[in-house]
C-alpha cells in the first residue's frame, strides 16, 4: 500500500482540477488571450501541482520512509536517498 492511498480520492480530484486548468490554458492560447493573463494561469497551475507534490512527499516520508527506517539497513538508506532526490527535484523546479 502506498502512503497516499488513504487520500487517493482527494489527490485524484485535485489532479483532475489541474487537468481542467491546463485545458483552460490551451484554450487561452488558442484564443490569443493576453500574455500576462496566460502566465498568471500558468503560475496558478504550477502552484497547484507543487501543492500536490508537497502532499505526496509528506505522505512518502510519513509512510514509506518511516517503514523503511524501522526495517533498517539498505532499504532505509535507499528510501531516504529517494526522498532527498525528490525534494531536490521539487526545489529546482
Automatic annotation (TrEMBL):
Location within or outside the cell: Cytoplasm
Main location, first listed in the record: cytoplasm
GO molecular function terms attached to this record: DNA-binding transcription repressor activity; metal ion binding; transcription cis-regulatory region binding
CC per GO annotation: cytoplasm; protein-DNA complex
Keywords: Copper, Cytoplasm, DNA-binding, Metal-binding, Repressor, Transcription, Transcription regulation
InterPro entries, alphabetized: Metal_Tscrpt_repr (IPR003735), Metal_Tscrpt_repr_sf (IPR038390)
Tagged with keyword Metal-binding: yes
Gene3D superfamilies: Metal-sensitive repressor, helix protomer (1.20.58.1000)
Similarity remark: Belongs to the CsoR family.
UniProt-recorded name of the protein: Transcriptional regulator
Native species: Amycolatopsis antarctica
Amino acid at each position: 500500500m502506498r502512503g497516499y492511498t488513504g487520500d487517493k480520492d482527494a489527490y485524484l480530484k485535485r489532479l483532475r482540477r489541474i487537468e481542467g486548468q491546463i485545458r483552460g490554458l490551451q484554450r487561452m492560447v488558442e484564443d490569443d488571450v493576453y500574455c500576462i493573463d496566460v502566465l498568471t494561469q500558468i503560475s496558478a497551475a504550477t502552484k497547484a501541482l507543487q501543492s500536490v507534490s508537497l502532499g505526496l512527499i509528506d505522505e512518502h516520508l510519513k509512510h514509506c520512509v518511516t517503514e523503511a527506517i524501522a526495517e533498517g539497513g539498505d532499504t532505509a538508506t535507499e528510501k531516504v536517498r529517494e526522498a532527498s532526490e525528490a525534494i531536490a527535484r521539487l526545489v529546482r523546479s
